[in-house]
Amino acid sequence: MRGKFITVEGTDGAGKSTQMDMLIKYLEEKGIEVVVTREPGGTKISEKLREIILDAENKEMTDTTEAMLYAASRAQHVEEKIIPALNEGKFVICDRFVDSSVVYQGYARGLDMEMIESINKYAVCGLVPDITLFFDITPEAGIARKKNMHQLDRIEQEKMDFHYKVYNGYKALCEKYPERIKRINAENDIETVHKDVLAAVEEILK
Ligand code: TYD
């Protein structure tokens, strides 16, 4: 039986990693084999592309180049790692996927949405997540959380209006794909958020 594909989305600093760790533990305790991965990245080649994309010194990178590098990194990731794992019956939990490109490169950078959708459709061989968890937190609260943790990378240095475009982009996607994308209130305490995650994931465990 094919495994399930879970993607995790949110603005910067939404607390995705903590919640992913808790979800993985829960699934593994149920005896489910889980592959955890992230975008951009997840394979040797995709991680190399990630370094180029997020390098704070690459200030001259054009928006189109950025969009294509994300899609290239994703194409390698899907074919080399995600699809084989799903075919082996494993669950794959991926930190960000196509929705991130639609939101960051499409809604926020303002690139042509059809172009973003079509290069990504081509990159993922038609793969669509079984469920997407969107961790909803206002950009101010998210950025404040991250600033305490480490130096900001190139994307995180963008101005607040960029982060609001990202946030509103996610909200628009939630409305467009209510079946697939589950909104989780990430401003709640850790345990409450975890309970909401489990309630959302329960549907695909049946
Ligand atoms: P990362 O440090 O993994 O951020 P986070 O912990 O918030 O997930 O860096 C990934 C950054 O790349 C993040 O700011 C979102 C951005 N991104 C895109 O712009 N497009 C994409 O397709 C993906 C996957 C990520």
Describe this protein's structure.
With 206 residues, this protein is of the alpha/beta class. The protein has one domain (5-205): P-loop containing nucleotide triphosphate hydrolases (Rossmann fold), CATH 3.40.50. Helix content is 55%, strand content 13%. The chain contains eight helices and five strands; from the N terminus they run E-H-E-H-H-E-H-H-E-H-H-E-H. It has helices at residues 16-29, 44-54, 63-87, 98-108, 113-123, 139-147, 160-176, 190-205, and strands at 5-10, 34-38, 91-95, 131-136, 181-185. A five-stranded parallel β-sheet has the order 2-3-1-4-5, with helices on both faces. Helix 2 runs antiparallel to helix 3. The longest helix is centred in the middle third of the chain and has 25 residues, at 63-87. The chain starts with a strand and ends with a helix. The relative contact order is 0.20. Thymidine-5'-diphosphate binds at residues 12, 39-40, 54, 70, 95-96, 100-101, 104-105, 153, 155.
> Portion of residues in helices?
55-70%
CATH superfamily: P-loop containing nucleotide triphosphate hydrolases
- Quickly give the structural class: alpha/beta
What is the multimeric organization of the chains shown? single chain
Kindly summarize this structure in a few lines.
With 206 residues, this protein is an alpha/beta fold. It contains eight helices and five strands; from the N terminus they run βαβααβααβααβα.
